[in-house]
Structure formats: C-alpha cells, structure tokens
Specification:
With about 270 residues, this protein is an alpha+beta fold. It is about 30% helix and about 25% strand. Strands 1, 2, 3, 4, 5, 6, 7, 8, 9, 10 and 11 form an eleven-stranded mixed sheet that branches. The chain is globular, with a radius of gyration of 18 Å. Mean pLDDT is about 85; it is low at about 1-20 and about 70-85.
C-alpha cells in the first residue's frame, strides 16, 4: 500500500503543478466499468492514519484532516533537517490530540448516506447487486482550518484499480457550515447533526453525478487558473494551479489531475 495522504496528496499534486511551467490538460475519467461498483471500503492508495489524517469513527468513514496547527511545512524547511523532523512531530502530535477529542462525536454512517441519496442505478450493474468491479469510497472529511474552526466536505474517492484500470480521482464538495472545536468535541445537537447529514448527502449526490459526467467525457474544465482557499491551502498558503469550471451559483469550481472540487466562495481568491 502506497503511503499517500488523501487530501494531502491532492494538495501536494497541485503544489507541484503550480511550480511547473506548463499545466497538463485535464484528462477525462475512463469509461464506467461494466460490472458496476462496490460502495465502501478503502481505495488502493488509502494511507490513514498518518501525521495529518485520522479516522474519528469506528467504521472508518469520517476522516479528520489536520490542515492547520503544529507549524507550517515552510517553517520546518527554514530550520533545516532537524527543524523539519521537529515540525513534523509537532504536526503529528496536534493531529493525534485532536483526533482523540473528536473520536465518536460525529455519528454519521457515510456509506448509508451515500446509498440513501445516490440512486442505485448509478452504481449497480443491471446484472449484479453485490460486489462490483470499481470501488466507490464515500467519506465525511472534517478539516481543521484554523486553531478553533472546522469545515466539512463530502468526499468520494473513485478507484478503478480493482477493475484492472490504474486510475483514481477524488470528488470533493465543501459543505457550508463552519463548526467550532467546542461544538464538535461537545457533540452536535440533533438538528445540527440532521443538517450535516442532509448536506453530506447532497454533496455525495454532486460527487457521483460529476464523476459520471467525467466518465462520459462531458466534464472538461479548460480554463487555467490558480486558487488560494481557506479550505484547501490554510497550512501552506501556496496557490494551487489547475482548471476552473462553472460549478453553479455561489460555488467555485476547480479541478486538478487528481481531484475535482466544488467550493464555497468564502475565503477563496482566484487568479486567471
């Protein structure tokens, strides 16, 4: 199993692209596998836990991403090799401490939410109703964006490696609400939890629909741009380079080779 971070790998891929003189064109997803998909389970590159990611539920469907705290990567680099190691240790310590406090506090069954909100004919083959050829892994991603605030997103990882095609892509829909650390570690109210569950369902609907458009060759972001986002880049503050697309009213659409995002416009700066 390759040791690649989920959201981290997305960001690192985009940072590398930002440093390149030319940006490769966005390549469409392969066609959908004839045998349908299995829903749930770890994709082929899944790494968690690591220094930035921890599951905070027993089903391993709610993933914490510590994108702020413990020092930035650039700080460690400035301090040399010893500084890098010390900084990484600080980041890991913050991640583990936060994960312990958050564990079990967001009781959402993400796979069941996906199955409730996404029509079965979008992922089950007409000839099969059990394990399929592709893998769809839905998650609730809980991301720390500063010392006291968290945002969530619906994350769908599509992995075609089990079907014999070396391809994965991640589809991420940033949800609207911002939570304080106190709210999450104390437990959300019933109304807050119901709202979050419904928003997650809507985000997973978008993720699946966008993937299917991608697989049909009907999703083709082409407008090159760079983005800074309180959600995507709070730790490094390095602009990501990729492609913009029309994500609808009050949304920011952005795509890289590894991921497709639909973002809230809050805290986003676009340069074209």
């Amino acid at each position: 199993m390759k040791s690649l971070g989920i959201a981290t790998s997305l960001l690192c891929s985009s940072f590398l692209l930002a440093a390149c003189a030319s940006l490769p064109p966005f390549a469409a997803a392969p066609s959908t596998p004839a045998g349908g998909y299995t829903v749930g389970g770890s994709p082929s590159f899944f790494p968690a836990p690591d220094s930035l990611h921890h599951f905070i539920d027993d089903r391993k469907e709610v993933l914490y991403f510590q994108n702020y705290g413990g020092g930035g990567v650039a700080l460690g680099v400035l301090l040399g090799p010893i500084g890098v190691l010390a900084n990484m240790s600080m980041i890991k310590s913050v991640t583990e401490d936060d994960a312990k406090q958050l564990h079990g506090m967001i009781p959402i069954d993400t796979v069941k939410v996906f199955q409730k909100y996404v029509p079965q004919d979008q992922y089950l083959s007409s000839s099969r109703d059990v394990n399929g050829e592709g893998l769809l892994s839905p998650y609730l991603l809980v991301e720390k964006i500063d010392d006291e605030h968290f945002r969530c997103s619906a994350l769908l990882i599509v992995d075609l490696n089990p079907a014999g095609t070396k391809w994965t892509r991640q589809y991420m829909y940033e949800l609207q609400d911002v939570y304080t650390k106190y709210q999450l570690t104390s437990g959300l109210s019933d109304s807050q939890l119901a709202s979050l569950t419904a928003d997650l369902g809507g985000g997973l609907q978008w993720a699946m629909a966008t993937y299917l458009l991608d697989a049909k060759g009907s999703f083709s972001p082409r407008e090159k741009e760079t983005i800074k986002s309180d959600f995507l880049t709070p730790r490094n503050q390095i602009p990501m380079t990729g492609y913009g697309y029309d994500a609808g009213p009050n949304r920011i659409g952005f795509a890289t080779a590894a991921a497709v995002y639909s973002l809230s416009p809050d805290g986003v700066t676009i340069t074209k």
